[in-house]
Amino acid sequence: MSTWIRDAWTDPVKLKRLSEIRRRELRQAAFVVLEREGIAGATLEKVAAQAGASKGIVLHYFRNKQELFEHAMREANAVLCQAVIARLRRARTPMERMDAVIEGNFEEHLFQPPLCHAWLSLCAEVPRDEKMARIQRVIHARMRSNLLSGLHGLASPADADDIALGVTALIDGLWL
How far apart are CA 24 and CA 157, in angstroms? Predict the structure, then answer.
């Protein structure tokens, strides 16, 4: 399992019920399988084996493969979001806010080839999966908002919009 997943997703204080713990374990296992197999090679059986569970257990917590990977995508994005937020809290100037968004998206422990491969697999589903597309829209809206807050006062509103779109495209491009 990727170290960043184990470290970032294992906060026992926040996990209150056994079902929450099991769902988190299954999401983590799904992401590990995605890193290794891509979405085309990922199966519920492989996720179950990775988690040390049965396919029936996976289906008890998630209706299907699509729902499981949707939740894995949300959780992976939440980890990345936490890195950006931590940097934004320390930012004091508009330029520091811009740097926080960009650098937070490329923290060394997160920006690793296996994670990039898993993310690419999930993003490839966006054109065919409305839920994945919705998640991606939320991710892009959040990034745009964070970038615009850094650009406030540095560029006109029209230029800020163009810059935010360009930076978002560059970040996505490097991840993919």
Answer: 41
